[in-house]
Amino acid sequence: MTKKIILGIESSCDDTSAAILSDGYILSNVVANQKVHQEYGGVVPELASRAHQQNIIPVVNTAIKKAGIIKEDLSAICFTQGPGLLGSLLVGSSFAKSFALGMNIPLISVNHMQGHIMAHFIKEEKTDKRYPKFPFICLTVSGGHTQIVLVKSFEDMNIIGETLDDAAGEAFDKSAKILGLPYPGGPLIDKYGKIGDKYKFTFGKHKVGQLNFSFSGIKTSIKRVIEKGIEGNPNFINENRDDLCASIQYTIVDILIKKLIKASKELGINEIAIAGGVSANSYLRERLLKLKDKHNKEVYIPKFEYCTDNAAMIAISGYYKLISGDIVDQSVTPMSRLYF
Ligand code: KG4
Ligand code: ZN
Fold it and tell me: What is the pLDDT of residues 170-183, one digit of tens each?
């Protein structure tokens, strides 16, 4: 049988990415990060779409070259339809639509958050590679979303809990901003938090019912602790940076893990995965591994490079959609809010 060679394109936020997969195995995964947003303390949508326009052709070309294929080898092209920034999504979707039309091959649309989950199914040659078994629970944590998803199959996923306000990544980034750290602050909180005391500061209580989350109160609480600290000592942040980061990280991760345990108990499902940018967090990964040892769960953590936004996760989603015949036509449009 001829191999299914898929080009995936991701442009939902501030990373332009293209990946090539052959029968589910990675041939290339190219990610161009946009540095332009750093000085603004967050993603500026207009600048993001302009940067995507500049990046998209070189990134796709590099992905094809690195994969060692030619464009005529492609079986299908898939892209992120949403959710995300509309201007950014438009660049990736317009490019994918034109390319598929020009090549006369199937076009496939992918939900970005489902893509994060599907990153677990990127195939690897090594024999000890473990894939989550259906049904499993996935905590999907990124800069824009925080969801607990019940994954019954590649096509059947239900959100059973989500944040009522800020996403977990947003909580990391906004806390980092309060500490004067550049955007995105999540990885820096992780870095400094590794050497700090996680019990030094406490920030509010998480009181949201069911399997939902709320992070805006914690952000306010962090702000108050810091303002009070600065009142007594103008050098408070500098002197306590690592402990503040460790405590912030502990607070956010503890909430996430407790809700995962609750979901697992309520549903009687012991297969647990994490996905999305925040799943790169070393303390979250450490706590998840403890669930395996202490609570007898089967846990799945994506490879570091497939946690934050990347096109490989879009391409693997497209691969399984192509197999099941789930393709779209040229009338497809990007959607900044896209549910599943
Ligand atoms: O999935 P992603 O790359 O983009 C979105 O779909 O939003 O997630 C980005 C988010 C940002 O909020 C970033 O700060 C956070 O993931 N993040 C981290 C870490 N690496 C990325 N948060 C905590 N610790 C990390 N190591
Ligand atoms: Zn994402």
Answer: 999 999 999 999 99
